[in-house]
Amino acid sequence: MIKHLVVVGVGLIGGSFALDLKNQGQVQRVTGIGRGRANLETALKLGIIDEIGDGLASAAASADLIMLAAPVGAMPGLFAELAPVLPTTCIVTDAGSTKQDVIAAARLGLGARVHQFVPGHPIAGAETNGAIAARPGLYADKPLILTPLPENRAADVETVEALWRACGARVACMDAALHDQVFAAVSHLPHLLSFALMEELASRPLAEIYFRYAGAGLRDATRIAGSHPEMWRDITLANADALMHELDALGDKLKSVRALIEARDGQALEELFARAREARSNWLQGKYNE
């Protein structure tokens, strides 16, 4: 039981975390912290939080658990603000999509108290944001990656793991560097491509005609271009090296596809498409989870 949970960033991720813990009877009181008063008032009306905090420092003074669900670019400032007021028994965790940069910020900001920070990343989300997007059950049967620090107390890691399991998540641990490498490929790159495709089409002189006749293909391929720009700016810059590697790899693949098209090699194209289709089918059927 968490007596007092503080959520920094009461949107889809932080708000859904709070709702699930409330529904499971795992938390008594939730305080919301954020930059937008209107969003916090919405969260209060929806029952996601029980009170709006005056600030992180004052809310943290009585907290048992602090969830940092803010953009990763905000993490250094949040850790610096927490350092002088963090209770010795309070656990801090996060939901950031990059881990090496957040861990570095925690080490710098929290110093000797970094052992109280248990890094995490829920693999769930949508292109919607804000408190209005929060919903119970978001994490049901979804992966949750923890990247524990050598300094973490085992009991603190177990507490964070248990809370995510209460939300329905499938918890796994991973090295932070490997995490950033993997998610550069399977999350950050797809988002970047979606944003880039929409920007490229929108900048064309005949953009209105293109969009007028666009259908499900473009809609499905660019769904995640509706995601929060600030959040994805921070993720892109935080994981820039791994992401540039993935861009180079995809660029090479696109060049090889272009060469097949130029050669009018229909058989090779069909074989490539068939391999891609099979890989996607295996993924959606959960064969890679076995």
Detailed description of the structure:
- The structure is a single chain.
- The chain is α/β, with parallel strands linked by helices and 290 residues long.
- The protein folds into 2 domains: 2-174, NAD(P)-binding Rossmann-like Domain (Rossmann fold, 3-Layer(aba) Sandwich), CATH 3.40.50; 178-289, 6-phosphogluconate dehydrogenase C-terminal like domain (6-phosphogluconate dehydrogenase C-terminal fold).
- The protein is 51% helix and 13% strand.
- It has helices spanning 12-23, 37-45, 56-60, 75-82, 100-110, 154-166, 176-202, 207-212, 216-221, 229-238, 240-262, 266-284, and strands spanning 2-8, 27-33, 51-52, 65-68, 91-94, 117-118, 120-122, 143-146, 170-173.
- The strands form 2 sheets. Strands 3-2-1-4-5-6 form a 6-stranded parallel sheet. A 3-stranded mixed sheet has the order 7-8-9, with helices on one face.
- α4 packs parallel to α5 (100-110) and α7 crosses α11 (240-262).
- The longest helix is centred in the middle third of the chain and has 27 residues, at 176-202.
- The mean pLDDT is 95.
